[in-house]
Amino acid sequence: MAAVNRRVFLSATGTALGAGLALHVNPTSAAASGLGHTGITKADLPTPALLVDLDALEANLKVIADHCRAKGCTFRPHAKTHKCPAIGKLQVASGAKGVSVATVPEAEAMVAAGVPGVLLTSPIVEPGKIARMVALTKQGGEVILAIGHPREAELLAEAAATAKLVMDVFVDLDVGDHRFGILPGAPALELARKISRYGSLRLRGVQAYAGLASHVKGFSARQEVSRTAMLQAVETRQLLAKEGHDVPILSGGSTGTYNIDTELPGGIELQVGSYVFMDVGYRAIGGRSGDDVYTDFRPSLTVLTTVVSTTLDDRASIDAGVKSFATDSPALPEAKDREGLRYKFFGDEFGLLTAESGAKLPRLGDRLEFYVPHCDPTVNLYDRIYATRGDHVEAVWPTVARKETADRTTKPAGQR
Ligand SMILES: Cc1ncc(COP(=O)(O)O)c(C=O)c1O
User: Fold this and answer.
1) Correct CATH for 56-278 of 3.40.930.10, 1.10.10.10, 3.10.290.10, 3.20.20.10
2) 401, 305 in Cβ contact below 8 A?
3) Where are the domains of the chain?
4) 209 CA distance to ligand 1 middle (Å)
5) CA dist., res. 172 & res. 183, Å (int)
6) Paired strand residues for 49
7) What pLDDT score does 250 carry?
8) Which of 334, 371, 337 is nearest to 353 (CA)?
């Protein structure tokens, strides 16, 4: 990565000039060339700032890559977690077949950054969004869509046929979340038949994401829930294969169940997402050895904060509240490398710190890092992630596609 001039960097990341200018740093080349060095340290960053610890991130990438290699499985990690093409490229460099994405803008951003093998795991029924996925394929992007309803298949098939393309698809199964997807067994077989009748669709596999299993506390309980859900997918895949459908891939799995799902008959292609960062909520699900803490992956994502008030002796205020951490999880931010501090949300911009007995409160101006309660929606609050090693900032990675882009209509190109 080209080193960033320190003065330009500081002004670009400062509040006066606002977001965007730090995006001069090219995340693609950062990932491709090995990380560079900006000459910036954490002390230079305006807070609150989102950081990823590169040593921990790299260790996490290696855990999944090594596990999949040992099990003879593939992986296509979920980029909804990081929304960051630079991390997507690191995942591919670690052996991933590509990335999974949750939205059309994420797919567009990953393809634009040159990430191969992009699987859209969510259903789309808006003609404009379908047209955008077709356009990505037309432009040479490698995309796969998970289809969970006959109408979705019909809409995509028509758009692909009009563009004279053949689009790769998975049959998306509802294995218990009841959020989207077709029911396993006969309904899925019927959908596979329908897909196979369209010349503009090519069936490549089955998707089954069991979100209900990912955060079950305790390894054996988690194993039970995941196996029950995922065996429906295994059986459905066999049913489809028996009828001659080409379903080489079963895509699914999560950070909490990666080492459960890779034991399934016929193998799996993992869609793990949170493993790159981890978060306080995930750490609490418990590990295989019966530990309360899930330590398979290292927490790498933190919010850097500053202590901005110490008026009263028994408390301190930091500059990170509900606008800086996602609040959907019952978990709370946890101070990194500081024992005995308790965080409480204290409004939009602030957090309240108190100290357990024997622990010391930080001083005014101190800078503290906090592990985040839930990684995906926390990332969605930030324009960029500072990639750090020790105190040094090695790269600045833009996050992308944090919302649907406002400048697009939902009409396919060319329609008025
Ligand atoms: C469809 C889908 N696949 C994979 C994942 C990744 O799960 P995790 O972050 O638990 O690894 C998610 C996360 O919500 C998801 O919605």
Assistant:
1) 3.20.20.10
2) no
3) 6-53+295-398, 56-278
4) 7
5) 9
6) 304
7) 98
8) 334
The residue contributing the CA closest to ligand 1 atom 13 is 273
Any atom of ligand 1 within 6 Å of the Cβ of 121: yes
Strands 341-345 and 351-355 turn out to be antiparallel
78 lines ligand 1 (CB under 6 A): yes
Q: Which pLDDT score is estimated for 9?
A: 44
Cα(272) to ligand 1 centroid in Å equals 6
pLDDT at 409: 52
Cα–Cα distance list, 20 to 15, 17, 44, 190, 264 (Å): 11, 9, 17, 48, 45
**Distance, CA of 309 to CA of 350 (rounded, Å):** 10
215 lines ligand 1 (CB under 6 A): no
Cβ of 318 below 6 Å from ligand 1: no
Q: Whose CA is nearest to atom 2 of ligand 1?
A: 209
Is 134 in contact with 108 (CB distance < 8 Å)? no
Q: Counting Cβ atoms within 10 Å, is residue 339 exposed (0-12), middle (13-18) or buried (19+)?
A: exposed
Q: Is 254 in the pocket of ligand 1 (CB under 6 A)?
A: yes
Question: Which residues of the chain are under the pLDDT cut of 50?
Answer: 1-34, 406, 412-416
Q: 122 CB under 6 A from ligand 1?
A: no
pLDDT in tens, 57-113: 999 999 999 999 999 999 999 999 999 999 999 999 999 999 999 999 999 999 999
Q: Quote the CA–CA distance of 78 and 23 in Å, as a whole number.
A: 23
Q: Are strands 269-270 and 74-75 parallel, antiparallel or unpaired?
A: parallel
CA nearest 297: which of 62, 50, 79? 62
Distance CA 384, CA 396 (A): 7
Q: What is the 141 CA–ligand 1 centroid distance (Å)?
A: 23
Atom of ligand 1 nearest to the CA of 255: 11
- Answer yes or no: same fold for 6-53+295-398 and 56-278: no
Residue 274 Cβ < 6 Å to ligand 1: yes
6-53+295-398 is classed in which CATH architecture? Beta Barrel (2.40)
Task: Look at residue 144 and give its three-state secondary structure.
Answer: strand
What does each C-alpha distance from 102 to 42, 58, 180 come to in angstroms?
A: 31, 23, 13
CA distance 231 to 233: 5
